[in-house]
Amino acid sequence: PVYCPDKRRQSVPIGTATVGEMADDLETDAALATLTKEELALLAEEIDPDNCLLPARDRVANQTSKKSTGDFDRDRLLNYMSESAKTSTVGSDYVTFQKKTRGRVYEPTRKPKPQTDEMDEIEKLLLGMSESDLGELADDLEVDGLSTKTRFSSSKRRSGPPTSAVTYSYIPGVGHGPDHDELSMDEILERIQDNDSSLTELNVNNRRIDNETRQQLLRCLRFNTHIEKILLANTKLDDDDARILAVHLETNRTIKVMNLESNRLTGAGVRVILRALQKNNTVQELRLENQYNPLGTRTEMDAAHLLEKNTTLLRLGLSFKGGGARQKVDRILLRNNDAGKWIVSCCH
């Protein structure tokens, strides 16, 4: 086929051209034949055949004033570009990259080291004091439950579940006084059974008591009308003991403070104690923290529900993981405290 530069025309195969097209070509050739060389050169400068099959040098004559450099030489061109790049001054002010920090350099604040010299001196001073001096010091500082022997230790922390209401403390004894700490359990039981009026505080914290003796002690409390404070922290108190104590609480009208921390109470034992407080109107402080088994969310909600009917409890030692139960108990204790202040003001 014969290709035409005009896109509007279609290629016409040889031998199929019309008579009109052939006549036009003859007229064009006849017109070009009458032109001189100068006129043909001028016409060639103005007219571009626009044929992509023709090289540029054949389509249009050279219209520049530069001299021809000859035929294309690839190697010569590459050598020229390499030499030009070597002698070029572009990028002569280039600076190599250096990692720098702009602005002020961050410096973490250093926390001052705790001064342990003073604590060591206090510890040595306490270790050098006698048991009676430690008891007097606890009374002067009004430390609840630390009226007798106290042992301080700087050794490693104990591993496993906590076993003491007060870390590194040993608090045996019954009541206040120099002779109560040396009492045996038989003497304690005898004084409780005799309803001794001088015995207003039962403190057996951290004592190793067998199950039979512990239950006998709790049963004796049912007939005592003078004890106002019961301290049974870290005595392996379990749910069975809690049921015996709950029966006593329902009818007792003298106990104001109970410390049952660091024992083996489960959720069932805690519920029994709190349910007994619904019928008790004298207990003002109850401590149930640091049990061997975690209580759980259900026990926390039950505890908050059981305390709604109690109007005398002012302080409760029990950690709540759930926000709802904690807020509910806080409102109950606040209500009881406000009611107690109102009663006191009315009495005055």
Keywords:
five-stranded parallel beta sheet, 12 helices, mainly alpha, disordered N terminus, elongated, single chain, 348 residues
Structure report:
By secondary structure, this protein is mainly α. It has twelve helices and five strands. A five-stranded parallel β-sheet has the order 1-2-3-4-5, with no helix packed on it. Strand 2, helix 9 (239-251) and strand 3 (257-259) form a beta-alpha-beta unit. Helix 8 packs parallel to helix 9 (239-251) and helix 10 runs parallel beside helix 11. The protein starts with 18 loop residues before the first helix and ends with a helix.
SSE layout and pairings?
Layout: H1 19-33, H2 37-46, H3 56-59, H4 74-87, H5 116-127, H6 131-141, H7 185-193, E1 201-203, H8 211-220, E2 229-231, H9 239-251, E3 257-259, H10 267-276, E4 285-287, H11 297-306, E5 315-317, H12 323-347
Parallel strand pairs: 1-2, 2-3, 3-4, 4-5
Question: What strand line-up does the widest sheet have?
Answer: 1-2-3-4-5
Structural class: mainly alpha
Instruction: Outline the biggest β-sheet.
Output: 5 strands, parallel
Mean pLDDT: 77
Oligomer: single chain
Overall geometry? elongated
* Number of beta-strand segments: 5
Separation of the first and last Cα atoms: 127 Å
Order of helices and strands: HHHHHHHEHEHEHEHEH
Low-confidence stretches: 1-16, 144-180
**Helical amount among residues, as a percent range?**
40-55%
Q: Total number of helical segments?
A: 12
Radius of gyration: 53 Å
Question: Approximately what portion of the residues adopt beta-strand conformation?
Answer: under 5%
